[in-house]
């Protein structure tokens, strides 16, 4: 039995939820506004970040110093879950296949996140909660331009492979879908512009991802102050 | 036979070099000023980032479209090398041990990098090459303050374990030592302040890391425009 501290619009938290659901693990979700640096949270999770995964324990037990599994860091969490729960493997194939899966995961979690998602999350969500400030539209504009370049590359890979890293679904698909779902929630993806070529291939892939049972809980997410976009819960967007 | 495109002051490139040397792999090093976005480099490595690892191929062969292993993304690279070359394993133990190793790796590559190393690299190195500008000392000041907080945590972990993630050397030690070595080269670590408690434990650990044969090549690095600090090549700093 796991407990996952998450934030609904955090793409890394969403990746973790998708992995746990794909593997039929039972877990409790606790929403954590990580930027508030809640004292009891920092005490048990020195990194202060979400997702934070614990196993079979209450906050009290952890702060008593008992030796439970406490995990932060997206790669640490998903690699652990895959090693510990072998059903529906999310890293599979030869060493070269796994290398390609992890290459895409690194691309999405580092490059795509830094060039697109983090700008949008910061301008639209974090700034709002911290200062009740309005977003800087010039930053959002650059992020959306970068988004289209990335989507074209993802569509190119998908057109050659079926799934994003190989001919099987993998952690790379779950990771990318998690990031995309956050942007979609915030209404940052203009799907009407994804109707041809690589971009259409990408849209088709996201339709399939969104229709998976593991996506159901994510599509029910609702964050006060941020209504989901019209396309968000629509499986035929 | 591998070829690694790297940048001498990139901590992720250094991690890769350390792993390859610890595993006695033979490889050729090619230095790449990645921020210049060299056309032939981008053509073969769409991420544009270093480290970039290729196997048995010249740039010409790769641009001819032959199917060689082309890897970017630090986790993709090091996990591949460890899976492919089993000697001197860098992820070992139970699933929980490996989870702790990867937790520290994520901490160093994401949190420590974003709060300390990237500021320093950007202000001291990248800005210099791009604009011949001078560093913003207020940013450097914040980065150094953050550095001390992290070092205290690393020293705390080391005092309990021997190595940073467990009782054996792992990729977590190589990763952290690579990042520290970049800061040390740039003279950003005041070792005189590391003479007691957790900080002394940390300094002792770095002395041991620096004395490993795999560190020799890194200690010989020299980057035009940036002389190594006095402590850098001194094993008894």
UniProtKB/TrEMBL annotation, chains A, B:
Record SUPFAM superfamilies: GST C-terminal domain-like (SSF47616), Thioredoxin-like (SSF52833)
Gene3D superfamilies: 1.20.1050.10, Glutaredoxin
Top-level taxon: Bacteria
InterPro entries tied to this protein: Glutathione-S-Trfase_C-like (IPR010987), Glutathione-S-Trfase_C_sf (IPR036282), Glutathione_S-Trfase (IPR040079), Glutathione_S-Trfase_N (IPR004045), Thioredoxin-like_sf (IPR036249)
Any single biological process term in GO: glutathione metabolic process
CDD domains from the UniProt entry: GST_C_family, GST_N_family
Domain GST N-terminal: 1-89
Key words of the record: Transferase
Key word Phosphoprotein present: no
Domain GST C-terminal, chain residue ranges per copy: 94-237
Molecular functions per Gene Ontology: glutathione transferase activity
Quaternary organization: Homodimer.
Protein name: Glutathione S-transferase
Organism: Candidatus Deianiraea vastatrix
């Amino acid at each position: 039995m796991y407990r996952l501290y998450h934030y609904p619009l955090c793409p890394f938290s969403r990746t973790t939820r998708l992995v746990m659901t794909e593997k039929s693990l039972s877990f409790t979700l606790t929403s954590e506004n990580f930027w508030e640096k809640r004292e009891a949270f920092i005490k048990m999770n020195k990194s202060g970040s979400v997702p934070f995964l614990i196993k079979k324990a209450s906050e009290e037990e952890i702060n008593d110093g008992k030796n439970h599994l406490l995990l932060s860091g997206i790669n640490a969490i998903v690699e652990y879950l895959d090693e510990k729960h072998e059903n529906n493997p999310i890293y599979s194939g030869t060493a070269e296949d796994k290398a390609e899966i992890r290459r895409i995961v690194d691309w999405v979690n580092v490059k795509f996140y830094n060039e697109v998602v983090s700008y949008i999350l910061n301008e639209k969500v974090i700034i709002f909660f911290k200062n009740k400030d309005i977003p800087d539209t010039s930053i959002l504009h650059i992020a959306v331009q970068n988004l289209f370049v990335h989507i074209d590359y993802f569509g190119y890979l998908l057109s050659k492979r079926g799934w994003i890293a190989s001919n099987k679904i993998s952690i790379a698909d779950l990771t990318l879908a998690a990031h995309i779902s956050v942007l979609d929630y915030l209404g940052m993806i203009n799907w009407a512009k994804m109707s041809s070529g690589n971009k259409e291939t990408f849209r088709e892939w996201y339709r399939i991802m969104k229709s998976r049972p593991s996506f159901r809980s994510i599509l029910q997410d609702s964050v006060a102050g941020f209504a989901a976009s019209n396309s968000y819960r629509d499986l035929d967007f």
